[in-house]
Description:
By secondary structure, the chain is an alpha/beta fold. Helix content is about 40%, strand content about 15%.
Amino acid sequence: MSLTKHPDNILSKAFQNNSANTQIKVIVTMPAYNAAKTLLKTFEDIPLGLVSEIILVDDCSKDDTAKIGTNLNLKVVQHPHNVGYGGNQKTCYLEALRDNADIIIMLHPDYQYDPRKIPELIEPIIKGQADIVLGSRFLNNGALAGGMPYYKFVANRFLTFCQNMVLGTNLSEFHTGYRAYSRKFLETVPFLRNSIAFVFDAEILCQAVFFNFKIAEIGVETRYFPEASSINWLSSIIYGLGVLRVLVTYLLAKLKLVPSKLFRP
C-alpha cells in the first residue's frame, strides 16, 4: 500500500537519529464495530506519510463500516460473525505481523483518540526506550475534560490503582484504546491465548510485565460524544471483575503457585 501524505515533523525527527530507521514499517490497526459515522474522520487524521499500511478489521458490523473502509486507502478484513473486541484485536495483530510490521498501532476508529498523536506514540519504540507505548487520558488531565463520564473515571482510577499495586508498575492508565506495540513484543507474548472479550487489554499488559517488557506512556486527549463507542453498565462491571480476576491469575503465576496458559512462553 502506498500512502501519500507528507510526514509529520514530530515523527520525522524520530527517524533522524539512525538512517536504518527509515526502513521501519509502521502499521495502524483499527478494530471496528459499527464505526461508520466516525471512520472517515479517524482515517483523515492519521499521518499517512509515516504509516506504511492501515488495517481495518470489521467485526461483523451492522452498519456500513466495511463499505466505507473499502472506499478508503486501507486494507479491510471482515469477520463473517462477531468474535468480540479481544478476538478482533487478535486478527488485527496477526494481519499486521503477516504484513511484516515493525511497529503495530491499535487505534479505535471511533474518533475518541487523536490519530495525530501517532508520531509521539511510536517514538519511544523507535528509540528503543519501550516495547509498548500507551496513550494515557490521565497524564494531561484529558479524561474529564474530554467528557469521560464520572463513573467511568472513578472505575478507571480504582482498577488502575489495583493493577499498579499488583504489577509493581506506576502507570497513569491501563485502559486506553490507543496503543503501540513492537513486533518483538507481539511475537513473544502468547496473546492468542487471551480472552476474546474486553479484558484482553488487561491480559496483554499483565503479560508485558510478566515477560519483562518495557512500557511507556504519552498523554493524549480524548473525545466523548454520542457516536463514540462505549460499553454499557453491565459490560463495564463484567470488564472490571475480569480485570481483578486477571490480576489474581497473574499473582498466582508469578508466585509459582498456580500456572496459567496466559503466562506460559
